Amino acid sequence: MAELAALLFDVDGTLADTERDGHRVAFNRAFAEAGLAWEWDVPLYGELLSITGGKERMRHYLEQYQPAATLPGNPADWIADLHRAKTRHYEALLGEGGIPLRSGVERLLREARDAGYRLAIATTTTPANVTALLENAVGPEALDWFEVIAAGDVVPAKKPAPDIYHYAMAKMALDPAQCIAFEDSHNGILASKGAGLKTIITVNDYTRDHDFDSAELVLDSFGEPQQPFEVLSGSPAVLNGAEYLDMALIKRVHSG
Ligand code: XBP
Ligand code: MG
Fold first, then answer.
1. Is beta strand 217-219 parallel, antiparallel or unpaired with respect to 231-234?
2. Ligand 2 center–CA 10 separation, angstroms
3. Residue of the nearest CA to atom 13 in ligand 1?
4. Residues near ion ligand 2 (Cβ under 5 Å)
């Protein structure tokens, strides 16, 4: 087994709980601004999350839930315009400061950096959304923590395709055996496993019941020293009594 060199992070649901109170609200604000009587409530948004990518999700909604809608002009351009508005609303929402990083995330990123591990992001979301999250939840310096921020349309096929992970590793000149991925969803683990990566899952309310059979470790959060994680699945030998995710545990997962 190659030595661990890099940690590759998903963003939405993994670094922060952005979906329900961030993306969903931003979509609804964009719909209202455009004069559309569409409202993505919390359960509906949970269903729509099976389609990754905001533009792809809107197209799916249009086809499946609003088949009678008549669009002004070309559907792809119309969706792209609406999605630009959604991104603007998302950035504004995060600027209001309501979405923190999940438990243990900042502690772990700092520990990994201090120990010399390379960090990258592999996400489906728009690059501006990653910037907005990191700047508002940590500060502008957090953007420099990541050697590569692989995001959005930089690859044509979004998760569950493995392409965004392949892209990030190619940029870093690393093999999958030198990396480990952090995800929160079934589509996410399909992408990371498709790229040959060992994967640690932290679930959230939208993904708790997803299939994570192929994960090396499934937790409810990264945890903190005074705020232990709950283990949903993982090898007791690898866990070795750990109560929060740190580099020692990640190295055991990687070599286990
Ligand atoms: C995230 C997504 C994204 C966001 C919306 O998936 O599916 O579509 O919900 O972002 P993952 P955009 O966490 O697996 O990367 O609207 O910018 O696409
Ligand atoms: Mg995710």
1. antiparallel
2. 6
3. 12
4. 10, 12-13, 184-185, 188
